[in-house]
Amino acid sequence: LVLLSITILIAGLFGCKKDSTDNTPINGGVVFTSQLVFISTTNVTEEQYTATLGDVNVSVLKINDTVAVFQVPGSFAVGNTKLSIPDLNNLIVNYEVKMTVLANTPDIVLKELFDNIDVFLGGIGSGADDTYVQSVLSSLDEFYSTATAADKTKMAIYYQANKELFNGIINDDFTLQRMGSLGECTVTLLKFVVTSFPFAAGVAVAWL
Fold this sequence. Notes:
Blueprint: H1 2-14, E1 26-32, E2 36-40, E3 48-53, E4 56-64, E5 67-71, E6 79-85, E7 91-98, H2 106-121, H3 128-146, H4 149-161, H5 163-172, H6 184-196
Parallel strand pairs: 1-7
Antiparallel strand pairs: 2-5, 3-4, 3-6, 4-5, 6-7
Helix pairs in contact: 1-5, 2-4, 2-5, 3-6
């Protein structure tokens, strides 16, 4: 149930589907700077793929056998662009990139996230993955408290660009797991999201 729910979450929020292995471009729709963009496809066998978004190199990372993800660089130029992944089904996806603009101050934007994290940590399990995720989530508050104004802004932009994903993971999917250890797919996705958070300004996304 957990794996199904998070797959639906990914596909519903960010997915684009390509069943064939030709190089016919598909429409990925609108994406935003600093956003994590999920691609629903087939035969995702490698842990990481090299891709180009416009003329910028980006890493595309495996979530599971049918879902991969990349991050739109925070400084990427707005407008129409193309993602090309030659080694992943020869995928070509067209996107319209728009800029992520903060709706409020970084403290106000991130308050909801830290409040949700506090609630989530109160119900996390005790397995090895749970302990790892707990450690990373707990460190975010410490990182933010010592961050520069510029870094706080970058973190807030990253959260705002991926707010629906963050809230979907923490508020919805994890409520299904309060009585047990975190599911493998969920842990993989959460590790990706939270470990990339402090490095949101970079082009490459951290992966552990």
